[in-house]
Amino acid sequence: GHEDFRPRIVPYYRDPSKPYKKVLRTRYIQTELGFHERLFVAVLTSKATLNTLAVAVNKTVAHHFPRLLYFTGLRSAKVPHGMMLVAHGDERPIWLMYETMHYIHQHFGSDYDWFYIMQDDTYAQAEQVKALVMHLSINQDVYLGRAEEFIGGDEQARYCHGGFGYLISRSLLLKLHPHLDSCRNEILSVRPDEWLGRCIIDFLGIACVSQLQGQHYHTYELAKNTEPEKEEEEEFQAALAVHPVSDMTLMYRLHKRFIRISMRSLFAQMQIRNLTSLTPAGEAGLTWPVGINAPFLPKSRFEVISWDYFTEQHLFSCPDGSPKCELSGASKADVSEIIESALEQLNSRYQPLLRFSKRQLLNGYRRFDPTRGMEYTLDLLLEAVTQKGHAHVLAKRVSLVRPLSKVEIIPMPYVTEATRVQLVLPLTVQDVDFVANFLDMFAMNTLDTHDNALLTLLFIYHPYDAQRVSQVDVFAGVKAMVGELEKRYAEVKIPWISVKTEVPSQVKLMDIVSKKHPVDTLFFLASVWTEINMEFRNRCRMNTISNWQVFFPVHFQEFNPALVYRGEQTASSSTDFLRDGHFDRYSFAEACFYNSDYMTARTKLAADILDRDEVLESMEVFDVFLHYSGLHLFRAVEPGLVQKYALRSCNPRLSEELYHRCVLSNLEGLASRSHLAMALFEQEQANST
């Protein structure tokens, strides 16, 4: 027993008389050595809860488990995004359990050591479940969960309650699989967890246990109308699984509560503090809060993230650019929650010696740091009350961070750059002077490059001009230019549509164009000042997805060269992005969308407004998609879509909002503040002399 074993090198020897056989090696040594993944999780769901509770499970704990699948009895169920679903096609509970166990054995029985089965009305603490299996031996047949007695059965026999989840070892699954068919035919039960428990007991003689190898499976049963935020019991805080969870909101509240409980633990923070002293930066490199990324360090003054000032009533950095606006909506809820959190942290730190209550928010500052989240600095006027009842008013500054959650990749349908783009160009009399430049750019960037794109012109006649069209056609010059273009490119045809109206509503014009094209047409609604290139057309194709997403680019608008350059030489290159200008967020003239999506949204709009066509004069295509479609609206700045400066003609017959946006677009497109200030300064200098 005390013999000293020493390693001995055995030299390789191949018998020359035997044929050589090539040894096939696996790609990974883990496979060759027979190692298995640790934990597989199966979630049982149903038709009523697939899009509610199952989605809540997926958003709260699913990403904490290494592998998780959802099982349902639905046939050809529509799978919510980001979820992997196995549909068995039979909604009977016992059949669902039988098919699930058979599927797990067939597809994952040889890959995982542990199998955790739960329902979608169960909240499981993923990290504690993973910690539990790390402390259990894989050599035993384990059936671990909340042990329950069979109704009218043997007192010694127990099954694991399905509502609280249960853990099955790989060895138990392998032994159970040959008996699943017999259990399905011989055991009668209403509850699937009872059926599985009886199957394991009858054929393997193993009952459910709540404690094994020194590890406890803690559970907590939620009472009706439970407030998770107020639960302070040790049984609740130690629970691996909580049941029953009645709705999505309660699932999210439980998740938030358990996260706060886990954050109270200083163990992880102490580990970080101890390890920090061993790093090159030492303790000076320790950031606050511990475990959160360090603040962003700007490399120049242009990268400094500014703070936004707020009070409990007003915000002094408004989305519309005004210096002061009322605090409302999500911003108001954000401020209220952060003040409440600050008081909670202060009371948890100083109680029972002191108890704080808020008198007033003196000053509030917040900024969004893309490396860590939203940062807050609050100056609070507090009333501190001692244990003896003495009160004292004091001002206290606190700092808080709302860290960024885990980044989620949203699955998107696959699209290609081969789709044909149908350009639609509405033209009024005021636009005639700019058509020549548009057609030249279209010929150079589209026709010369043989890009898969077509052009349709929409001539908008005023009723007076329409009556005189046989004598004087205001668009005669444009039609002549189109004719020259068709002669130069024999294979190209540029059709046009003539419309008579006093109010050129974008929606009414699009209705006419939509009826003349197939439903699978990809439209690009352009304006006459737009310089269209292949780079943007490809982004139009990639960012527009049928029955999923529409694209409304924010074009780059050049400033008035008379104000910007003031007689100096202008930029020579028309493709130079460094020209002075800005992204015009007031303009929704450009859009990329599929005809089928527009027709679907337009049908819903027609049912809503009935015969009130005057409503269409106050709407744009953007409003149609925003209010009457469930599609994603992708609105982003587009550096490849550049417009030269031109003073737009704002039609006063349109709605007040559309007219106001047009005026603001003209005003902000004049020049930047520095250019305007310089122009005013030069004008004052000229007047003074």
TrEMBL record:
Any idea which UniProt keywords this protein has? Glycoprotein, Golgi apparatus, Membrane, Signal-anchor, Transferase, Transmembrane, Transmembrane helix
**Pfam families with a match to the protein in the record:** CHGN
Q: What is its EC number?
A: 2.4.1.-
> What terms describe the molecular function in GO for this protein?
glucuronosyl-N-acetylgalactosaminyl-proteoglycan 4-beta-N-acetylgalactosaminyltransferase activity; N-acetylgalactosaminyl-proteoglycan 3-beta-glucuronosyltransferase activity
Q: What class of enzyme is it?
A: transferase
Q: Has keyword Transferase?
A: yes
Q: Does the keyword Cytoplasm apply?
A: no
InterPro entries per UniProt: Chond_GalNAc, CS_glycosyltransferase
Predominant cellular place of this UniProt entry's protein: Golgi
Q: Which family does it belong to?
A: Belongs to the chondroitin N-acetylgalactosaminyltransferase family.
The name under which this protein is listed is Hexosyltransferase
Q: Which organism is it from?
A: Balearica regulorum gibbericeps (East African grey crowned-crane)
Its ancestry begins with: Eukaryota, Metazoa, Chordata, Craniata, Vertebrata
